[in-house]
C-alpha cells in the first residue's frame, strides 16, 4: 500500500473543503487524490491491492451531524443517514415491516462483521469485484482507461450479461442498490457546488466507452442521506439472492421485487436485477409485461423473458440468462404470496 495522509474532518463542510483542495472538477471520485472513507470495507481493500492509490484519505466517522447516523421513518417514507451501518438498518423493526426488500438485501449481503462496519452510502458506491479489475497485472479499462478488457476473452463466469459494452463487462456486485432502485429511492449529496437530490436510478453510469466513470458524483461530493418514498408496493416486497454458497458470496443472479396487487392482478410492479448487470438494473420491460395481468407462472415467465431479451452472454456466463429468468419468476411468485 502506498503512503497516504489521513484526516478526520469535523463536519460535512470541512470534509468537502478538504476534498476540494486536492481535486479538480475533472477528477473522478475513484481516481481522485483525496477520497472519502467510512466503513472502509471496500476502499481499504483496493488500496492494499494497489487498485486505489489516493494521496489523502478523509475519514467521515468523526462528522458531527447526528442525522448522518439516524434512521427516520415517517408516513412519507424512510430516510437513512449516510453513516448508518448495514447491520443496523437490516435489524431495524420498521425497515423490516415497511420495506422488507431493503432488510432482505442488507441481511443477505457480506458477513455479519462487514455489515456492522460498512456504511449504507459506502455500500451503494462499492466497486466491482471483477478479478481482472482487482489484479493490476491485467488490462482493465475501468482501472486504466484505454488499456483494454481482459475479461472479454478471459474467464468471465461472474460477469454481466446486461448493460455491458465493448469496453467493460464487469458486474456491479452490490445487493442494497437493487432494493433502492426498485423503490424509486433518491440520494442527497453535498459538495463544493452545493447540495443536490439525485434519483438513485441516475447515480450509477453504464460503462459504455468510459467504464472508469462509475457514478454521477463529483470527487468532492459526499452522500449525506438515502431517502425511500412510502409507496403501496413497498410492504409487499422481497429480495431473492442466488449464489454459489449460502453465505458470504456475491450474487450470480438476484431480484428485488415490489408489488401492488388488486387481488391476483398487478396494479404496479417494481423489479430490479442483480448479479447479472454492470449497474443496479431496473427491469422496466418486465414491469410493463406484468401491468394489469394476473400474476401466475405464465405471466411471471413472460416478464422474465422480457427482462433478459437484450442479454448478451459470453463464453462462461451464458448460464446467467436462464438462472436470472428463474430467479425473477421465483421472486415474483414468492412476493405475490407474502402475508402483508
SSE arrangement:
Layout (H helix, E strand, L loop, with lengths): L4 E3 L4 H10 L12 E4 L5 H7 L6 E4 L11 E4 L2 E5 L4 H6 L1 H6 L1 H8 L4 H6 L2 H5 L6 H4 L41 H7 L3 E6 L2 E6 L22 E8 L7 E6 L10 E10 L2 E10 L6 E2 L1 H7 L6 H11 L11 H18 L4
Helix pairs in contact: 5-9, 10-11, 11-12
Enzyme class: oxidoreductase
GO molecular function, one term: xanthine dehydrogenase activity
EC number: 1.17.1.4
Describe this structure in words.
- It is a single chain.
- The protein is 28% helix and 20% strand.
- It is an alpha+beta fold.
- It has a domain at 237-336: Enolase-like, domain 1 (2-Layer Sandwich).
- A 5-stranded antiparallel sheet has the order 4-5-8-6-7. Strands 9-10-11-12 form a 4-stranded antiparallel sheet, with helices on both faces.
- It is globular and about 60 Å long.
- The model has no long low-confidence stretch (mean pLDDT 96).
